[in-house]
Amino acid sequence: MSSEIPPQVQNQIAQLQQVQQQAQSLAIQKSQVESLQKESEMALEELEKLDDDAVVYRTVGDMQIRCTKEDAINKLKERCETLGLRLQSISRQEERISKRFAQLQEQIKQSMGTQGFQAQ
Questions:
Q1: Residue 70 forms beta bridges with which residues?
Q2: pLDDT band at 39 (very low <50, low <70, confident <90, very high)
Q3: Distance CA 89, CA 22 (A)
Q4: How far apart are the C-alpha atoms of 68 and 106, rounded to whole Å?
Q5: pLDDT band for position 116 (50/70/90)?
Q6: Displacement of CA 108 from its chain's centroid (Å)
Q7: Cβ 50 vs Cβ 69: under 8 Å
Q8: Looking at residue 114, what is its pLDDT?
């Protein structure tokens, strides 16, 4: 069957599969970052409920370091902001990948001469 498909179309199908893998990878990354962001936001909410003189520790590598509540809040806000920017970046990448996927699908359909062709 592959001998019936022109080399150009085979190349486009390979590109389509790569784009699909990139999209799956981005979806996994996005899910992980969303989870980290949610955890950070929940920690921030709990931290803000504490008294100002509460003993607070934050994790640095494998260690727990004592810090002020204010310092911990600032670090968490910074982390939430960084994760938010990462999510925006991933969303833009997903949009570009989606457009590229649709473009490749259309090229393959045109190359095959059938409007109902679906690459797997």
A1: none
A2: very high
A3: 14
A4: 57
A5: very low
A6: 27
A7: yes
A8: 58
Q: Which residues contact 111 (CB under 8 A, 6 or more apart)?
A: 6, 8, 9, 12
Q: Residue 85 has what pLDDT?
A: 98
Q: What is the pTM of this model?
A: 0.78
Tokens describing residue 97: 């990948």
From CA 93, how far away is CA 80, in angstroms rounded?
A: 20
Long-range contact pairs involving 89-92 (C-beta distance under 8 Å, separation at least 24): 90/26, 90/29, 90/30, 90/33, 91/30
Which of the 8 DSSP states describes residue 5?
A: S
Closest CA to 32 of 83, 69, 77, 72: 83
